[in-house]
Amino acid sequence: MPSSLTLSDRDGTWTIASIDQQADGFAHMPDTRKGDACGCLSVETDQATMHITKVLGGRLKPVSACRRDKNLKQ
């Protein structure tokens, strides 16, 4: 696992996993392999800490779809 794994959306950047902790349900993460990826996740969050506390599921999308999404910061 990388030292950290994050998800950026219109609300900010969420931590999915760090060196010492990872979200419950991490096995439900799509395989992002390496580098940047685009996808949709169903998750539970702690908005106060911007942490994803549980991954319920997800799917990858073409990176171009995220680049076209005006709600996402590039």
Automatic annotation (TrEMBL):
Pfam families: DUF4087. It comes from the Bacteria. This is DUF4087 domain-containing protein. The lineage of its organism: Bacteria, Pseudomonadati, Pseudomonadota, Betaproteobacteria, Burkholderiales.
